[in-house]
Amino acid sequence: MTDLTLAAARTIVEKALAHAHAAKFKPLGVVVVDARGLVRAAEVEDGSAFLRFDIAHGKAFGCVSVGVGGRTLQKFATERPHFTTALGGLTRDRMTPVPGGVLIRDQAGALVGAVGISGDTSDNDELAAIAGIEAAGFKADTGA
Amino acid sequence: MTDLTLAAARTIVEKALAHAHAAKFKPLGVVVVDARGLVRAAEVEDGSAFLRFDIAHGKAFGCVSVGVGGRTLQKFATERPHFTTALGGLTRDRMTPVPGGVLIRDQAGALVGAVGISGDTSDNDELAAIAGIEAAGFKADTGA
Amino acid sequence: MTDLTLAAARTIVEKALAHAHAAKFKPLGVVVVDARGLVRAAEVEDGSAFLRFDIAHGKAFGCVSVGVGGRTLQKFATERPHFTTALGGLTRDRMTPVPGGVLIRDQAGALVGAVGISGDTSDNDELAAIAGIEAAGFKADTGA
Amino acid sequence: MTDLTLAAARTIVEKALAHAHAAKFKPLGVVVVDARGLVRAAEVEDGSAFLRFDIAHGKAFGCVSVGVGGRTLQKFATERPHFTTALGGLTRDRMTPVPGGVLIRDQAGALVGAVGISGDTSDNDELAAIAGIEAAGFKADTGA
């Protein structure tokens, strides 16, 4: 377990949004949590629906709590929906098991935290998350 | 209801933390929500306990959900604790009824959102929130 | 209802982990509850995600609360998902209805408690639970 | 934030119970969580009521989530009960704000986790927690 600094979390948010703007994505919500599930930095763009933060948060929190990327959570959901329902309850309804939740790992592979992004397609949300994580010098684990 | 832009929310976070650093406060969590209760910007400083975001969020969310500042919520709590207990349930346990939650109002008095800060004393948390709100060109309503 | 001693619960944890280490399983969380659902012994290995205890606990607690092994809970979930959803609510979201939750029975078949293990595949989790239960002189009821 | 190993968590449980037995305390529940709030080791002695684990867990989880020892949580509760009620909700009712919850710090003061003990008087519960923490080479922070 590696500490995530606020400075690094800020860089991830900034670079994820820069990627989204360059690619002309829809308005996004971006949430960065550390290995404890604590929100360290978050921004939600103008024009977002009022659940946007919670959806993005659930992607990040779900990934870091189970220790897998959002694509693995989605695979669980399609293969064993009752397990995913249970995980939803165990996280006190704070899990969004779809792509766009991406684990942050250091170069040695240790867990640092997770990013959750929501607002465009799940695939595009994930691309923005990867861009932010890599720009901050970490490795992105999407669960693919 | 006046729109809160992400740009304004960022300024509030930045200036609240600048005030805290100048005054040598402890590490803070800062959460800015708009008039719908949506988190627009948040940062939690290094060295924070893992409930810090939730405590700060509960200050902001509680204020904007009831439409009063944190000092009014605390007054409710001491004068009519059963009402505060009910408000806690009605917000699904997302209310922290103490100072450090401050409403953001525009110069005409319209509700724009709220800031919640946690980490130092409640009085100092509130001072940082006021500094951020005013630096962004809004009026701070502490409920005092 | 037969009493489960702490000494027996410790043996179950120790022998389940010994089996897992010999079989080179991933890091596990192991939770032993008695017939009342009370946690009597638990250990979570280094390198575990932070929901690991809750997932393992939900396997043990779910089994002992309904009185069936994890494979039966999973069968319920696939055949009558609405019943499983109800059980999730009735246990206050403390049920993980998949294999790896195994009832502990004495040699006469009386209920003694349950073991929940999580971290590797559900099948491997279950093998470790059986190993622990049998090493402590009890019979394992997986619900198969 | 320093990692807590299972080996260290086991030592804390063992030495806390050794202290309790030497001092002839009543049957105890002992729960050790890491800096993320994850249960790493727990034991509940024979003759315990069925809420014993949850009470002990709430002491440990409450301390580590807020970042203060149990005596500070108790002080919050007597001075500002509405704040404590809010913390209860924010932790999803997983906080027991009384002595017997003790932070584990390394020799440099960094947060490693927390111990929660319940079963005898709160003062005696706390003594057992301190004994376990110190025997494992850490510093105990009771919040006094």
TrEMBL record, chains A, B, C, D:
It comes from the Bacteria. InterPro entries: GlcG_carb_metab_protein, PduO/GlcC-like, PduO/GlcC-like_sf. Pfam families: HbpS-like. PANTHER family: SLR1406 PROTEIN. This is Heme-binding protein. It comes from Phreatobacter aquaticus.
